[in-house]
Amino acid sequence: MIAGMNILIADDHPLFRDAFKGILHQLLENADIKEMATFAELMSLKSSQQFNFDMVFIDLAMPKGNPYETIAHLNKLNPKTPIIVVSGEESQEVVKNAIASGAIGFLPKSLDTDSLISNLKHVLSGAMAMVSPAAVQETDSQTLIDGLTARQTDVLKLMCEGQTNKMIARVLDLTEGTVKLHVRAILKTLGASNRTQAVAITNLHKDELDN
Fold first, then answer.
1. Shortest CA distance to 132 belongs to which of 86, 175, 173?
2. CB contact at 8 A, 145 and 160
3. What DSSP character marks residue 133?
């Protein structure tokens, strides 16, 4: 179990918050979990001291505010606090807007309990930011590349240089297992079946990747 994390759950459904807290308490030892139920509560936070969490899980369908403006506001307050969206809305546009606003990952509420727990273990350990399966169906490669997290983009650039997982791990100071998780997420996001295809797709948009 991971010990001593300070977590915020923002969701307007008490039953979901209770269930999600229960799962987090299974995975985290002595976690301090706070709750909010509206975007207005989140927007009322005005400093990095107030928004100082090890991780935040936020729904997109809460009342009293705009989800993307709220995520951008929180990210500006404290860019070091990772924001994970947990939402029933899973379209490519929704995922892209969430990531563009400052979220580092996206967990769909449609996941079954076992899959949610498995994905949360990766997220809580910092191994990777998960993206909804529905988000990888888009065929526009540039849109998909934009959907990668900053760390996944770093991994993808090194893949394009022909570096192995072991070499990438050394360059980015990651474990090889973590690199494998990032590569798997990259392949899914690009709709590629292997590394060679992912590199080929990326080379079609090399200028955008380098920006």
1. 86
2. no
3. G
The rounded distance, in Å, linking the Cα atoms of 68 and 61 is 11
CATH topology of domain 2-136: Rossmann fold (3.40.50)
Global model pTM greater than 0.70: no
- According to DSSP, the β-strands at 28-29 and 2-3 are parallel
- pLDDT, tens digit, 9 for 90 and up, residues 137-159: 433 344 456 678 888 888 998 99
| Spans of all domains in the chain | 2-136, 141-210
Phi, psi of 9 (to 5 degrees): -110, 120
Q: How far is CA 190 from CA 33, 152, 165, in A?
A: 35, 11, 18
CA-closest candidate to residue 135, choices 198, 90, 184: 90
Distance CA 161, CA 203 (A): 11
Q: Which amino acid is at 79?
A: P
For domain 141-210, give the fold.
Answer: Arc Repressor Mutant, subunit A (1.10.10)
Mean pLDDT of all residues in 69-78: 93
Average pLDDT over residues 19-24: 93
Spatial contact of 70 and 39, defined as CB atoms under 8 Å apart: yes
Is the Cβ–Cβ distance between 186 and 148 less than 8 Å? yes
8 Å CB contact between 60 and 98: yes
